């Protein structure tokens, strides 16, 4: 190694140590944090005609699954299962009033949640 190469190497090494924050006992600066971007509203995973009433739409009794039917205030798990079983055995409902054909759903109880349903 030539003399000027040694001098260059020693100078570069010394400059790196002098200007290094570790050599002066300083800590590395933390990286700035970026606030999270706002997310878009969740897209419903149910069919468009089986949207829950909480979103302002009516639940289609011919296509809604058990969770969709249970989202209607007044329909619990047992009524939702009964609606689905009736639909499998007898085909689609012709009107919301056909729900009175299901055991446990009387005309009076149907009137409480009828406005949340559609066919």
Please state the overall shape, judged from the principal axes of the Cα atoms: rod-shaped
The helix fraction, in percent, is: 25-40%
CATH H level, superfamily name of the domain at 48-118: AF1531-like domain
CATH class of the domain at 48-118: Mainly Alpha
Radius of gyration over C-alpha positions, nearest whole angstrom: 35 Å
What letter string, H or E per element, gives the SSE order?
HEHHHE
| Biggest β-sheet: strands ordered side by side in the sheet | 1-2
Note the beta-strand portion.
under 5%
Largest sheet: 2 strands, parallel
CATH topology name of the domain at 48-118, in short, is: DNA polymerase, domain 1
The computed structural class is mainly alpha
Distance between the termini: 90 Å
Uncertain spans: 48-52
- Oligomeric state of this protein: single chain
Q: How many E-type strands?
A: 2
Write down the overall mean pLDDT.
77
CATH architecture of the domain at 48-118: Orthogonal Bundle
Number of distinct helices: 4
């Amino acid at each position: 190694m030539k003399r000027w190469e040694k001098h260059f190497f020693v100078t570069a090494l010394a400059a790196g140590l002098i200007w290094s924050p570790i050599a002066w006992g300083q800590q590395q600066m933390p990286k700035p944090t970026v606030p999270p971007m706002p997310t878009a509203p969740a897209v419903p995973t149910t069919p468009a005609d089986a949207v829950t009433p909480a979103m302002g739409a009516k639940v289609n009794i011919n296509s809604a699954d058990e969770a969709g039917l249970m989202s209607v205030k007044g329909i619990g798990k047992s009524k939702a299962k009964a609606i689905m079983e009736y639909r499998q055995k007898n085909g689609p409902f012709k009107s919301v009033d056909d729900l009175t054909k299901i055991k446990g759903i009387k005309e009076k109880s149907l009137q409480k949640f009828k406005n949340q349903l559609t066919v």
